[in-house]
Amino acid sequence: MTLAFGTDGIRGDTRRELTGEAVEALGRTAADVLGAERFAVGRDTRISGPGLVEALSRGVRQVGGSAVDLGVVPTPAVARWCQDERVAGAMVSASHNPWHDNGVKLFASGGRKLSDGAQHEIERRVAELLGGAPPASGDDLGTGHDSGGAQPDLALGRHIGAVAASLEGRDLTGLRIVVDAANGAVFRSAPECLRRLGADVETVHAAPDGYNINDGCGSLHPESLQAEVVSSGAHAGLAFDGDADRVLAVDDRGALVDGDQILAVCAIDRAGRGRLTGSAVVVTVMANLGLRQAMAAHGINVVETPVGDRHVLGALEDHGLVLGGEQSGHLIFRDLATTGDGLLTAVHLLDAVKRSGSSLRDLAAAAMTRLPQVLVGVPMPASARPADLDEALGAIASEAMARLGDSGRVLVRPSGTEPLVRVMVEAADTGTAQAEADRLAARIEAVLA
Protein backbone atom coordinates (compact mmCIF):
# COMPACT_ATOMS: atom_id res chain seq x y z
CA MET A 1 0.00 0.00 0.00
CA THR A 2 1.36 3.45 -0.93
CA LEU A 3 0.21 7.03 -0.56
CA ALA A 4 1.15 9.61 -3.17
CA PHE A 5 0.73 13.36 -3.26
CA GLY A 6 -1.32 14.73 -6.12
CA THR A 7 -1.93 18.33 -7.13
CA ASP A 8 -3.20 19.17 -3.64
CA GLY A 9 -2.45 16.62 -0.94
CA ILE A 10 -3.20 12.92 -0.75
CA ARG A 11 -6.59 11.49 -1.69
CA GLY A 12 -8.20 8.09 -1.99
CA ASP A 13 -11.33 6.02 -1.56
CA THR A 14 -11.77 5.34 2.15
CA ARG A 15 -13.41 2.00 1.39
CA ARG A 16 -10.26 0.62 -0.24
CA GLU A 17 -7.25 2.95 -0.14
CA LEU A 18 -7.20 5.72 2.43
CA THR A 19 -7.52 3.64 5.58
CA GLY A 20 -6.92 4.50 9.21
CA GLU A 21 -3.67 2.53 9.13
CA ALA A 22 -2.36 4.53 6.18
CA VAL A 23 -3.32 7.91 7.66
CA GLU A 24 -1.79 7.00 11.02
CA ALA A 25 1.48 6.28 9.21
CA LEU A 26 1.13 9.58 7.38
CA GLY A 27 0.66 11.50 10.64
CA ARG A 28 3.69 9.87 12.22
CA THR A 29 5.85 10.52 9.18
CA ALA A 30 4.68 14.08 8.55
CA ALA A 31 5.33 15.14 12.14
CA ASP A 32 8.83 13.68 11.94
CA VAL A 33 9.75 15.08 8.52
CA LEU A 34 8.34 18.53 9.29
CA GLY A 35 9.97 18.59 12.71
CA ALA A 36 6.63 19.58 14.20
CA GLU A 37 5.88 18.91 17.86
CA ARG A 38 2.41 20.45 17.58
CA PHE A 39 -0.22 19.80 14.91
CA ALA A 40 -3.62 21.36 14.26
CA VAL A 41 -6.08 19.10 12.43
CA GLY A 42 -9.35 20.10 10.79
CA ARG A 43 -11.82 18.24 8.63
CA ASP A 44 -14.77 18.69 6.32
CA THR A 45 -18.13 16.99 6.82
CA ARG A 46 -17.43 13.50 5.37
CA ILE A 47 -18.52 10.49 7.40
CA SER A 48 -14.93 9.24 7.47
CA GLY A 49 -13.56 12.51 8.85
CA PRO A 50 -13.60 11.86 12.62
CA GLY A 51 -11.90 8.47 12.24
CA LEU A 52 -9.18 9.83 9.97
CA VAL A 53 -8.54 12.79 12.27
CA GLU A 54 -8.05 10.39 15.16
CA ALA A 55 -5.77 8.17 13.07
CA LEU A 56 -3.65 11.12 12.00
CA SER A 57 -3.44 12.37 15.58
CA ARG A 58 -2.35 8.93 16.80
CA GLY A 59 0.49 9.02 14.32
CA VAL A 60 1.60 12.45 15.50
CA ARG A 61 1.56 11.30 19.13
CA GLN A 62 3.68 8.24 18.30
CA VAL A 63 6.68 10.51 17.64
CA GLY A 64 6.12 12.63 20.73
CA GLY A 65 3.93 15.31 19.22
CA SER A 66 0.52 16.64 20.16
CA ALA A 67 -2.51 17.37 17.99
CA VAL A 68 -5.43 19.70 18.52
CA ASP A 69 -8.72 18.89 16.79
CA LEU A 70 -10.15 22.04 15.17
CA GLY A 71 -13.36 20.23 14.22
CA VAL A 72 -15.29 20.93 11.02
CA VAL A 73 -13.65 24.01 9.52
CA PRO A 74 -12.64 25.21 6.04
CA THR A 75 -9.09 24.46 4.91
CA PRO A 76 -8.06 28.14 5.14
CA ALA A 77 -9.15 28.17 8.80
CA VAL A 78 -6.59 25.43 9.47
CA ALA A 79 -3.93 27.37 7.58
CA ARG A 80 -4.75 30.53 9.56
CA TRP A 81 -4.55 28.65 12.88
CA CYS A 82 -1.15 27.27 11.84
CA GLN A 83 -0.02 30.78 10.94
CA ASP A 84 -1.21 32.29 14.22
CA GLU A 85 0.10 29.50 16.46
CA ARG A 86 3.26 28.74 14.42
CA VAL A 87 2.36 25.04 14.27
CA ALA A 88 2.09 22.48 11.49
CA GLY A 89 -1.31 21.23 10.42
CA ALA A 90 -3.49 19.00 8.33
CA MET A 91 -6.90 19.24 6.71
CA VAL A 92 -8.75 15.96 6.29
CA SER A 93 -10.70 16.52 3.09
CA ALA A 94 -11.03 15.38 -0.50
CA SER A 95 -12.17 18.81 -1.63
CA HIS A 96 -14.77 18.45 -4.43
CA ASN A 97 -14.73 14.61 -4.49
CA PRO A 98 -17.75 12.53 -3.37
CA TRP A 99 -18.33 11.43 0.23
CA HIS A 100 -16.58 8.07 -0.03
CA ASP A 101 -13.27 9.73 -0.91
CA ASN A 102 -11.17 11.56 1.61
CA GLY A 103 -7.68 12.98 1.79
CA VAL A 104 -5.10 14.90 3.76
CA LYS A 105 -3.70 18.32 2.94
CA LEU A 106 -0.60 19.08 5.00
CA PHE A 107 0.75 22.45 6.15
CA ALA A 108 4.23 23.16 7.41
CA SER A 109 4.63 25.36 10.47
CA GLY A 110 3.08 28.75 9.79
CA GLY A 111 0.40 27.46 7.42
CA ARG A 112 2.49 26.92 4.28
CA LYS A 113 2.03 24.15 1.72
CA LEU A 114 4.85 21.62 1.57
CA SER A 115 7.81 21.71 -0.77
CA ASP A 116 8.29 18.97 -3.36
CA GLY A 117 11.22 17.68 -1.34
CA ALA A 118 9.17 17.33 1.84
CA GLN A 119 6.37 15.57 -0.05
CA HIS A 120 8.77 13.08 -1.62
CA GLU A 121 10.41 12.32 1.72
CA ILE A 122 7.02 11.75 3.37
CA GLU A 123 5.96 9.43 0.53
CA ARG A 124 9.17 7.43 0.87
CA ARG A 125 8.91 7.01 4.63
CA VAL A 126 5.21 6.14 4.57
CA ALA A 127 5.94 3.44 1.99
CA GLU A 128 8.62 2.01 4.29
CA LEU A 129 6.28 2.04 7.29
CA LEU A 130 3.45 0.32 5.44
CA GLY A 131 5.84 -2.11 3.79
CA GLY A 132 3.62 -2.77 0.80
CA ALA A 133 1.04 -4.49 2.99
CA PRO A 134 -2.50 -4.79 1.61
CA PRO A 135 -4.83 -2.08 2.89
CA ALA A 136 -6.81 -2.84 5.98
CA SER A 137 -10.58 -2.51 6.00
CA GLY A 138 -11.95 1.00 6.06
CA ASP A 139 -14.46 -0.04 8.73
CA ASP A 140 -12.28 1.50 11.44
CA LEU A 141 -13.17 4.98 10.21
CA GLY A 142 -16.50 4.96 12.01
CA THR A 143 -20.11 5.29 10.93
CA GLY A 144 -21.33 8.23 12.98
CA HIS A 145 -21.24 11.81 11.76
CA ASP A 146 -19.62 14.21 14.22
CA SER A 147 -19.44 17.95 13.53
CA GLY A 148 -17.85 18.81 16.87
CA GLY A 149 -14.21 19.14 17.89
CA ALA A 150 -11.90 20.51 20.53
CA GLN A 151 -11.51 24.01 19.08
CA PRO A 152 -14.08 24.49 16.29
CA ASP A 153 -15.65 27.67 17.63
CA LEU A 154 -12.29 29.32 18.24
CA ALA A 155 -10.86 28.29 14.86
CA LEU A 156 -13.97 29.41 13.01
CA GLY A 157 -14.10 32.64 14.96
CA ARG A 158 -10.53 33.51 14.10
CA HIS A 159 -11.11 32.80 10.42
CA ILE A 160 -14.38 34.71 10.18
CA GLY A 161 -12.93 37.64 12.09
CA ALA A 162 -9.86 37.85 9.87
CA VAL A 163 -11.88 37.69 6.66
CA ALA A 164 -14.31 40.36 7.85
CA ALA A 165 -11.46 42.59 9.05
CA SER A 166 -9.74 42.37 5.67
CA LEU A 167 -12.32 44.83 4.28
CA GLU A 168 -10.82 47.52 6.52
CA GLY A 169 -14.13 48.81 7.85
CA ARG A 170 -16.16 48.47 4.64
CA ASP A 171 -19.24 46.26 4.58
CA LEU A 172 -21.63 44.46 2.23
CA THR A 173 -24.85 46.08 3.38
CA GLY A 174 -27.49 46.14 0.66
CA LEU A 175 -26.36 42.95 -1.11
CA ARG A 176 -28.60 39.89 -1.20
CA ILE A 177 -26.51 36.74 -1.51
CA VAL A 178 -27.32 33.03 -1.88
CA VAL A 179 -24.66 30.68 -0.47
CA ASP A 180 -24.29 27.10 -1.71
CA ALA A 181 -22.19 25.50 1.04
CA ALA A 182 -21.87 22.16 -0.81
CA ASN A 183 -22.97 20.51 2.46
CA GLY A 184 -19.34 20.98 3.36
CA ALA A 185 -16.97 22.73 5.73
CA VAL A 186 -18.22 26.27 5.12
CA PHE A 187 -21.86 25.61 6.05
CA ARG A 188 -21.55 27.73 9.20
CA SER A 189 -18.75 30.20 8.52
CA ALA A 190 -19.83 31.65 5.16
CA PRO A 191 -23.35 32.70 6.23
CA GLU A 192 -22.08 34.03 9.55
CA CYS A 193 -19.28 36.09 7.98
CA LEU A 194 -21.44 37.57 5.25
CA ARG A 195 -24.18 38.48 7.73
CA ARG A 196 -21.61 40.06 10.03
CA LEU A 197 -20.65 42.26 7.07
CA GLY A 198 -24.26 43.31 6.58
CA ALA A 199 -25.33 41.13 3.63
CA ASP A 200 -28.77 39.56 3.42
CA VAL A 201 -27.96 35.83 3.15
CA GLU A 202 -29.91 32.78 2.03
CA THR A 203 -28.32 29.33 2.17
CA VAL A 204 -28.79 26.18 0.12
CA HIS A 205 -27.07 22.81 0.59
CA ALA A 206 -26.03 23.75 4.12
CA ALA A 207 -27.24 20.67 6.04
CA PRO A 208 -24.39 18.12 5.99
CA ASP A 209 -25.10 14.54 7.03
CA GLY A 210 -21.74 12.95 6.28
CA TYR A 211 -22.80 11.64 2.88
CA ASN A 212 -24.23 14.58 0.95
CA ILE A 213 -21.06 16.65 0.59
CA ASN A 214 -20.71 17.86 -3.04
CA ASP A 215 -23.71 15.71 -3.98
CA GLY A 216 -25.31 17.62 -6.86
CA CYS A 217 -24.24 20.92 -5.32
CA GLY A 218 -21.29 23.21 -4.74
CA SER A 219 -18.76 24.54 -7.20
CA LEU A 220 -18.92 21.51 -9.51
CA HIS A 221 -22.73 21.44 -9.60
CA PRO A 222 -23.98 25.03 -9.35
CA GLU A 223 -27.22 24.48 -11.28
CA SER A 224 -29.55 24.64 -8.27
CA LEU A 225 -27.74 27.72 -6.98
CA GLN A 226 -28.11 29.42 -10.36
CA ALA A 227 -31.85 28.75 -10.31
CA GLU A 228 -32.22 29.97 -6.72
CA VAL A 229 -30.36 33.23 -7.37
CA VAL A 230 -32.73 34.05 -10.23
CA SER A 231 -35.92 32.99 -8.45
CA SER A 232 -35.03 34.85 -5.23
CA GLY A 233 -33.93 38.03 -6.98
CA ALA A 234 -30.51 37.94 -5.32
CA HIS A 235 -27.61 40.08 -6.45
CA ALA A 236 -25.24 37.10 -6.54
CA GLY A 237 -24.63 33.52 -5.52
CA LEU A 238 -21.53 31.80 -4.13
CA ALA A 239 -20.70 28.14 -4.81
CA PHE A 240 -18.05 26.64 -2.52
CA ASP A 241 -16.38 23.24 -2.72
CA GLY A 242 -16.26 20.73 0.12
CA ASP A 243 -13.37 22.28 2.04
CA ALA A 244 -14.04 25.88 0.93
CA ASP A 245 -10.59 26.80 -0.31
CA ARG A 246 -12.21 27.91 -3.55
CA VAL A 247 -15.40 29.56 -4.75
CA LEU A 248 -17.28 30.31 -7.96
CA ALA A 249 -19.90 33.02 -8.27
CA VAL A 250 -23.28 33.37 -9.98
CA ASP A 251 -24.62 36.68 -11.27
CA ASP A 252 -28.18 37.98 -10.95
CA ARG A 253 -29.24 36.30 -14.20
CA GLY A 254 -27.87 32.94 -13.13
CA ALA A 255 -24.70 32.98 -15.24
CA LEU A 256 -21.60 31.38 -13.76
CA VAL A 257 -18.63 33.63 -12.97
CA ASP A 258 -15.53 31.42 -12.86
CA GLY A 259 -12.16 31.83 -11.18
CA ASP A 260 -10.58 33.55 -14.17
CA GLN A 261 -13.32 36.19 -14.19
CA ILE A 262 -13.11 36.64 -10.42
CA LEU A 263 -9.34 37.05 -10.69
CA ALA A 264 -9.76 39.60 -13.48
CA VAL A 265 -12.24 41.65 -11.45
CA CYS A 266 -10.07 41.60 -8.33
CA ALA A 267 -6.85 42.33 -10.24
CA ILE A 268 -8.31 45.31 -12.08
CA ASP A 269 -9.91 46.60 -8.89
CA ARG A 270 -6.66 46.31 -6.95
CA ALA A 271 -4.64 47.89 -9.74
CA GLY A 272 -7.03 50.83 -9.77
CA ARG A 273 -6.52 51.34 -6.04
CA GLY A 274 -2.75 50.92 -6.14
CA ARG A 275 -2.98 47.60 -4.28
CA LEU A 276 -1.61 45.26 -6.97
CA THR A 277 2.04 44.96 -6.02
CA GLY A 278 4.27 44.52 -9.04
CA SER A 279 1.38 45.19 -11.44
CA ALA A 280 1.19 41.45 -12.12
CA VAL A 281 -0.87 38.37 -11.29
CA VAL A 282 -0.03 34.66 -11.20
CA VAL A 283 -2.17 32.21 -13.18
CA THR A 284 -1.86 28.54 -14.11
CA VAL A 285 -1.62 27.01 -17.55
CA MET A 286 -5.40 26.44 -17.40
CA ALA A 287 -6.23 30.16 -17.34
CA ASN A 288 -8.43 31.28 -20.21
CA LEU A 289 -6.76 33.18 -23.02
CA GLY A 290 -9.34 35.91 -22.45
CA LEU A 291 -7.87 36.53 -18.98
CA ARG A 292 -4.42 37.01 -20.43
CA GLN A 293 -5.80 39.43 -23.02
CA ALA A 294 -7.69 41.37 -20.34
CA MET A 295 -4.62 41.70 -18.14
CA ALA A 296 -2.57 42.96 -21.09
CA ALA A 297 -5.24 45.55 -21.87
CA HIS A 298 -4.94 46.92 -18.32
CA GLY A 299 -1.14 46.87 -18.25
CA ILE A 300 -1.04 43.95 -15.84
CA ASN A 301 1.63 41.31 -16.41
CA VAL A 302 0.93 37.58 -16.13
CA VAL A 303 3.18 34.95 -14.55
CA GLU A 304 2.23 31.37 -15.50
CA THR A 305 2.67 28.22 -13.38
CA PRO A 306 1.65 24.55 -13.49
CA VAL A 307 -1.77 23.61 -12.08
CA GLY A 308 -2.01 23.69 -8.29
CA ASP A 309 -2.39 26.47 -5.75
CA ARG A 310 0.97 25.68 -4.13
CA HIS A 311 2.62 26.51 -7.47
CA VAL A 312 0.67 29.76 -7.57
CA LEU A 313 1.79 30.61 -4.04
CA GLY A 314 5.40 29.75 -4.87
CA ALA A 315 5.38 32.11 -7.85
CA LEU A 316 3.74 34.87 -5.79
CA GLU A 317 6.53 34.58 -3.24
CA ASP A 318 9.31 34.30 -5.81
CA HIS A 319 8.15 37.43 -7.65
CA GLY A 320 6.98 39.42 -4.62
CA LEU A 321 3.37 39.53 -5.87
CA VAL A 322 0.10 39.50 -3.94
CA LEU A 323 -2.64 38.08 -6.17
CA GLY A 324 -2.98 34.89 -8.18
CA GLY A 325 -5.33 32.02 -8.76
CA GLU A 326 -6.87 29.27 -10.80
CA GLN A 327 -9.88 28.99 -13.07
CA SER A 328 -11.42 26.60 -10.54
CA GLY A 329 -11.85 29.48 -8.09
CA HIS A 330 -8.70 28.95 -6.00
CA LEU A 331 -7.52 32.52 -5.45
CA ILE A 332 -4.67 33.54 -3.16
CA PHE A 333 -4.42 37.02 -1.65
CA ARG A 334 -0.87 36.64 -0.36
CA ASP A 335 -1.01 39.82 1.70
CA LEU A 336 -4.06 38.47 3.53
CA ALA A 337 -3.64 34.67 3.74
CA THR A 338 -1.12 31.87 3.27
CA THR A 339 -3.35 29.73 1.07
CA GLY A 340 -6.43 29.79 -1.15
CA ASP A 341 -9.55 30.92 0.71
CA GLY A 342 -12.99 30.74 -0.87
CA LEU A 343 -14.65 32.93 1.74
CA LEU A 344 -11.95 35.61 1.54
CA THR A 345 -12.22 35.57 -2.25
CA ALA A 346 -16.00 35.87 -2.13
CA VAL A 347 -15.92 38.79 0.28
CA HIS A 348 -13.42 40.74 -1.83
CA LEU A 349 -15.32 40.05 -5.03
CA LEU A 350 -18.54 41.32 -3.44
CA ASP A 351 -16.69 44.32 -2.01
CA ALA A 352 -15.53 45.22 -5.53
CA VAL A 353 -19.09 44.85 -6.80
CA LYS A 354 -20.51 47.11 -4.11
CA ARG A 355 -17.88 49.82 -4.53
CA SER A 356 -18.28 49.79 -8.31
CA GLY A 357 -21.98 50.58 -8.09
CA SER A 358 -22.44 48.02 -10.86
CA SER A 359 -23.81 44.47 -10.94
CA LEU A 360 -21.59 41.42 -10.77
CA ARG A 361 -22.78 40.60 -14.29
CA ASP A 362 -21.64 43.92 -15.73
CA LEU A 363 -18.42 44.03 -13.72
CA ALA A 364 -17.36 40.54 -14.86
CA ALA A 365 -18.24 41.31 -18.47
CA ALA A 366 -16.22 44.53 -18.40
CA ALA A 367 -13.24 42.78 -16.81
CA MET A 368 -12.73 40.10 -19.47
CA THR A 369 -14.26 38.19 -22.37
CA ARG A 370 -13.91 34.44 -22.06
CA LEU A 371 -12.86 32.59 -25.17
CA PRO A 372 -14.89 29.41 -25.73
CA GLN A 373 -13.16 26.65 -23.78
CA VAL A 374 -13.90 22.92 -23.89
CA LEU A 375 -12.64 20.55 -21.20
CA VAL A 376 -12.58 16.77 -21.65
CA GLY A 377 -11.36 14.05 -19.31
CA VAL A 378 -10.03 10.84 -20.86
CA PRO A 379 -10.05 7.96 -18.32
CA MET A 380 -6.70 6.34 -17.60
CA PRO A 381 -6.80 2.54 -17.58
CA ALA A 382 -6.04 0.64 -14.39
CA SER A 383 -2.97 -0.88 -16.05
CA ALA A 384 0.44 0.73 -15.67
CA ARG A 385 0.88 4.18 -17.19
CA PRO A 386 2.82 4.03 -20.50
CA ALA A 387 6.44 5.06 -20.01
CA ASP A 388 6.32 7.44 -22.96
CA LEU A 389 2.94 8.97 -22.10
CA ASP A 390 4.19 12.51 -21.51
CA GLU A 391 6.08 12.49 -24.80
CA ALA A 392 3.06 11.15 -26.69
CA LEU A 393 0.73 13.72 -25.12
CA GLY A 394 3.15 16.51 -26.02
CA ALA A 395 3.23 15.44 -29.66
CA ILE A 396 -0.58 15.22 -29.82
CA ALA A 397 -0.96 18.68 -28.29
CA SER A 398 1.62 20.19 -30.67
CA GLU A 399 -0.30 18.91 -33.68
CA ALA A 400 -3.51 20.48 -32.39
CA MET A 401 -1.80 23.81 -31.66
CA ALA A 402 -0.44 23.87 -35.20
CA ARG A 403 -3.98 23.43 -36.53
CA LEU A 404 -5.39 26.25 -34.36
CA GLY A 405 -2.54 28.72 -34.80
CA ASP A 406 -2.76 32.00 -32.88
CA SER A 407 -6.55 31.81 -32.63
CA GLY A 408 -6.58 29.13 -29.95
CA ARG A 409 -4.77 27.24 -27.23
CA VAL A 410 -4.39 23.58 -26.25
CA LEU A 411 -3.38 21.93 -22.99
CA VAL A 412 -3.08 18.18 -22.47
CA ARG A 413 -1.93 16.82 -19.12
CA PRO A 414 -2.43 13.89 -16.72
CA SER A 415 -4.63 14.91 -13.78
CA GLY A 416 -2.93 15.33 -10.43
CA THR A 417 -6.02 14.22 -8.49
CA GLU A 418 -7.89 11.66 -10.62
CA PRO A 419 -7.01 8.82 -13.07
CA LEU A 420 -7.63 11.04 -16.09
CA VAL A 421 -5.83 12.78 -18.90
CA ARG A 422 -7.27 16.28 -19.01
CA VAL A 423 -7.76 18.01 -22.36
CA MET A 424 -8.42 21.74 -22.66
CA VAL A 425 -9.04 23.50 -25.98
CA GLU A 426 -9.73 27.20 -26.51
CA ALA A 427 -10.74 28.56 -29.88
CA ALA A 428 -12.53 31.48 -31.48
CA ASP A 429 -15.83 29.56 -31.45
CA THR A 430 -17.28 26.69 -29.45
CA GLY A 431 -17.75 24.41 -32.45
CA THR A 432 -14.07 24.52 -33.35
CA ALA A 433 -13.02 23.99 -29.75
CA GLN A 434 -15.36 21.02 -29.30
CA ALA A 435 -14.30 19.38 -32.55
CA GLU A 436 -10.62 19.73 -31.68
CA ALA A 437 -11.18 18.43 -28.14
CA ASP A 438 -13.03 15.38 -29.48
CA ARG A 439 -10.22 14.71 -31.94
CA LEU A 440 -7.63 14.97 -29.16
CA ALA A 441 -9.62 12.68 -26.86
CA ALA A 442 -9.81 10.02 -29.56
CA ARG A 443 -6.06 10.21 -30.18
CA ILE A 444 -5.33 9.92 -26.44
CA GLU A 445 -7.71 6.98 -26.02
CA ALA A 446 -5.78 5.18 -28.76
CA VAL A 447 -2.47 5.85 -26.97
CA LEU A 448 -3.86 4.58 -23.66
CA ALA A 449 -5.51 1.47 -25.15
Structure characterization notes:
There is one protein chain. By secondary structure, the protein is an alpha/beta fold. Helix content is 40%, strand content 20%. The chain has helices spanning 20-33, 49-62, 75-85, 116-130, 152-165, 189-196, 223-232, 259-272, 289-297, 309-319, 342-356, 360-367, 389-404, 430-448, and strands spanning 10-13, 38-43, 66-72, 88-92, 101-108, 112-113, 176-180, 200-204, 236-240, 247-250, 256-257, 280-284, 301-305, 323-325, 331-333, 373-379, 409-414, 420-426. The strands form 4 sheets. Strands 1, 2, 3, 4, 5 and 6 form a 6-stranded mixed β-sheet that branches. The chain has a 5-stranded mixed β-sheet with strand order 8-7-9-10-11, with helices on both faces. The chain has a 4-stranded mixed β-sheet with strand order 13-12-14-15, with helices on both faces. A hairpin with a 5-residue loop joins strand 10 (247-250) and strand 11. The protein is globular and about 55 Å long.
> β content, as a range?
15-25%
Q: Roughly what percent helix?
A: 25-40%
How many β strands by DSSP?
18
Please identify the structural class as seen in this structure.
alpha/beta
Low-confidence spans: pLDDT under 50, at least 5 residues? 134-149
Output the number of helix runs: 14
Mean pLDDT: 91
Intertermini distance: 26 Å
Q: Tell me, briefly, the overall form.
A: globular
Largest beta sheet, briefly? 6 strands, mixed
